[in-house]
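User: Hey, quick favor. My workstation is busy. Could you predict this chain's structure for me?
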Amino acid sequence: MEIVLTISVGYCSNFTPTHPFFSQRTLCFRLTHLQHRGMLRQVLAPTLAELGINPSSTACQRVLQEIMERGLRFVNGTLSRGYHCKALHLQSVILVGPMTTNQESLMTTAALAISESEFESNNYGMVAATESSVKEMLKRFKVEDGEQQDCMVCLEELGVGFEASRMPCSHIFHGDCIGKWLQQSHYCPICRFEMPTH
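Assistant: No problem, here it is.
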């Protein structure tokens, strides 16, 4: 016996909750597929995915179970009444509603947390300067009178007689400060001069 199953999926939105947009697909398969969950899932999964329903979701598993139970009940009722036919027609209507604000907020928060974690693990998109370029291009010197200024990494003063480092762009910093900075970013913290990265 063949089963002809018509699946109609109604999509409700926040803007039109009482007038869902329907999409429909009709499938034909053998009765044995209806009797075995794995076989039914194999037949229905591509169609459900095409209709925008994740075949591995819990909701989809419940839909599959309901199609099996109701379909088998209908088939058994038809056969027990003595009706013999080549094909039985079944229909499944699934309404997909909009997410509540709370669900949407939870999903957005989760997505942002994952994105932030990935961004952090990738050093916020920063690329370090090569160690060799730092050694070659930074010039160490003692700060003299008239050269005093603030280190723009730690924001503390570079006092007279203090050892500092000068970048090729002429900006000066505490040696340790700019050394640590260039291990994280290859840009000058003031003018964005680029140090080599490879």
